[in-house]
Amino acid sequence: MLKNLAATAVAACCISLAPLGAFSQTPTKTADAAKPLKIGFVYVAPLTDAGWVRQHEEGRKALQTALGKRVQTTYVEDVAEGADAERVIRDLAQQGNTLIFTPSFGYMEPTLKVAQEFPNVKFESITGYKTATNVAVANARYYEGRYLAGIVAGRMTQTHLAGYVAGFPIPEVLQGINAFTLGMRSVDPKAEVKVVWLNAWFDPTRERDAAMTLFNQNVDVVSFHTGSSAVMAAAQERGKMAIAYHSDMRSVAPDAQIAAVTHRWGDYYTARAKAVLDGSWKSGAVWGGVKEGMIRVGDFGTRVPKAVQTEVLNAQKAMAQGKLRSFQAKEAVRDNEGQVVIAKGETLSDEKILGMNWLVAGVQGKVSH
Predict the structure, then answer these.
(1) Residue 267 CB: number of other CB atoms within 10 A?
(2) Sign (positive or negative) of CA dihedral 311, 302, 47, 5
């Protein structure tokens, strides 16, 4: 998860984009085949049944299943960003883990610091952007799933008003809000999206309160960019609709969930572990989305008509083929202050997407802390 607007904007200048699985050009020393590769994971929040951490845990389990006795994986959960993260990452390295995944933006600097102390350990900074000889970075185009989810919301809303419970006003979150709004308005031009900022990633009580506030303001469908399933539970309680994020959350909101944007890390984690095992691991950067299988929209609720499901799945297929892009303008796109942010016929470059600092027309809210 990203957590710093200025730092993330720098990524627009510094990140080197590469396709998934492209890191095999410079061989490294092959792992000892007689011993399992020890792999550590650090999780920024408690491990629950759904959410950001759950999807990385599913990725770890997929890696373990795929590679079996060739690997030995472990994780530490609920590790705060900063000094605690540095301590835990160092501990994992000292315990003999030679591949360490750190999936939270606030882990980037601690990861880089520890990596200097352990040059023979490979580190994977997930959502970070700074690389080193033994530090690679990876992120997902979460906004692609948001656009598709917006289509579902636009087809299902009766009030033409959606809610969005958001963590921090940084590019990753702004990308999601804007893509969701554009997707929603592609099928419901009257649609508007009301945003509530929490300035927190994981605070179930406040997440629930924010959702309830939105429902009290005529919102009938809600999305979110926070770490728990509290928004889904609130929608279930109020008889409203909701878009699940990170994970399928029908177990929490069987009636409320109309679709889910899910993150798929298993293939990436497995590929990177294989690269260490066969000696082909190298540093670099991946930014993958629907095409690479890192983002998926589905898990539709029973109230969603088959025609809408088909429409979304067809759009997802078109996106995978490069025929549909979240930030491509047939007509000029303006922000909610009236300025043109995507010119007619333009498709935003990755650099502009990475540095996004505006909210699109149709969003009720401001980019503020």
Answers:
(1) 18
(2) positive
All domains of the chain in start order, with CATH: 5-140+264-288 (3.40.50.2300), 142-262+296-364 (3.40.50.2300)
Handedness of CA 49, 300, 104, 36 (dihedral sign): positive
Residue 338: Cβ within 10 Å count: 7
Residue 86, phi then psi, degrees to nearest 5: -60, -45
Maximum pairwise Cα distance, the chain:
63
Backbone torsions φ then ψ of 102, nearest 5 degrees: -125, 85
The pTM score is: 0.83
| Amino acid of residue 341 | V
What are the DSSP calls for 184-249, one per residue? HHHH-TT-EEEEEE-S-S--HHHHHHHHHHHHTTT--EEEEESSSSHHHHHHHHHT-EEEEEES--
SS3 2: coil
Q: Which tokens hold the place of 152?
A: 């579902």
Residues 6 or more apart in contact with residue 249 via CB below 8 angstroms: 50, 229, 232, 257, 260
Measure the CA–CA gap between 269 and 289, rounded to whole angstroms: 15
pLDDT per position in the chain (369 positions), as tens?
Answer: 444 433 433 333 333 334 444 443 344 444 445 799 999 999 998 888 888 899 999 999 999 999 999 999 999 999 988 899 999 999 999 999 999 999 998 899 999 999 999 999 999 999 888 999 999 999 999 999 999 999 999 999 999 999 999 998 988 899 999 999 999 999 999 999 999 999 988 889 999 999 999 999 999 999 999 888 999 999 999 999 999 998 899 999 999 999 999 999 999 999 999 999 999 999 999 999 999 999 999 999 999 999 999 999 999 999 999 999 999 999 999 999 999 999 999 999 999 998 899 999 999 988 875
For residue 367, the SS3 value is coil
